[in-house]
Amino acid sequence: MSNKKLSIVCFSGNFDKAIAAFTIASGAKAVGYEVNLFFTFWGLNIIKKKKGRSFLGKGILSKFFNFLMGGLKNLPLSRLNFGGISPKLLTFLMKKRNVATLEELIKASIDLGVNFYICEMSYVILGYKLDDFIPQIKGILGVSKFLELSQDGEIIFIS
Amino acid sequence: MALDLSNKNVHKIDITKEHCPMTFVKVKLALSEIQSGDVLEILLKKGEPLENVPKSLVEQGYKVLLIENFMDDIYRIYVEK
Q1: Domain extents in chain A
Q2: For chain A, which terminus, N or C, has the lower number of CB atoms within 10 Å?
Q3: Residue A68 φ/ψ, nearest 5 degrees
């Protein structure tokens, strides 16, 4: 056991990149790292409470934009998305081969005690409420707080 | 192998069908649910799980009591919390 620390900036809302983020997060937490996940921009789609498309946010533009982005069930594959068929196909293959699916990796990260944070700027732009996200969010942070939390650890940016 | 577990609370987990990172994740979650002094019996496969799970357990201060071949490519580990 040590004070090893890993901070991951989840900028991407792509299905495959979210899998990468949560694989590293859960693996690192299991072997004793303190793990902080910072969700910003497209990454916020991963942790919305409503997993499908929904009109979240303040004002018509935010609501429309959020509807287009969708939630966990609408995350596109970064390549060869084929209108959303590929993530479903990949999830089917993951189950078939006994590899943890994205939802299982997120649950494992939560159960192990990975810390979830939201970037304040993207939160404000789209006029979110904290209640729009899963209840495990520990806080809404600006850059200075992010730097303070990730100090003396490793930082990974997933874009 | 002679390992006396008669006065121990033994819990079991089978991670032979799991892959990275869920191998150690499941072990860690199982350990979080048992009491200090209890023993966890882990069934795992040769290769990445057998190389890394015992190592990570020792690194985190758990006491690995025994590692033995269970059958073919499957191994059994006893670890004390």
Answers
A1: 5-158
A2: N
A3: -65, -40
B4: Cα separation from own chain's centroid? 16
**Cα–Cα distance for residue pair A42/A60, rounded to 1 Å:** 19
- Residue A4 in contact with residue A34, Cβ under 8 Å? yes
Angstrom distance (rounded) from CA A20 to CA A90: 14
Cβ distance B44 to B67 under 8 Å?
no
Chain B CB contacts of A23 under 8 Å are 20-21
| CA separation, residue A22 to residues A60, A108, A126, B5 (Å) | 32, 9, 24, 37
Best mutation target, B15, B20, B22, B62, to test chain A (most A CBs within 10 A): B22
pTM for this structure?
0.92
Residue B21: HSE in the Cβ half-sphere, 13 Å Cα cutoff: 25
Q: Which tens digits make up the pLDDT trace of A14-42?
A: 999 999 999 999 999 999 999 999 999 99
CATH fold, domain A5-158, is Hypothetical Protein Ychn; Chain: A, (3.40.1260)
CB contacts, 8 Å: A27 with chain B: 20-21, 24-25
Asked if A23 reaches chain B (Cβ–Cβ under 8 Å), the answer is: yes
| A31 inside 8 A of chain B by CB | yes
Asked if residue A87 has a cis previous peptide bond (ω within 30° of 0), the answer is no
Tell if the CB–CB gap between B19 and A100 is shorter than 8 Å: yes
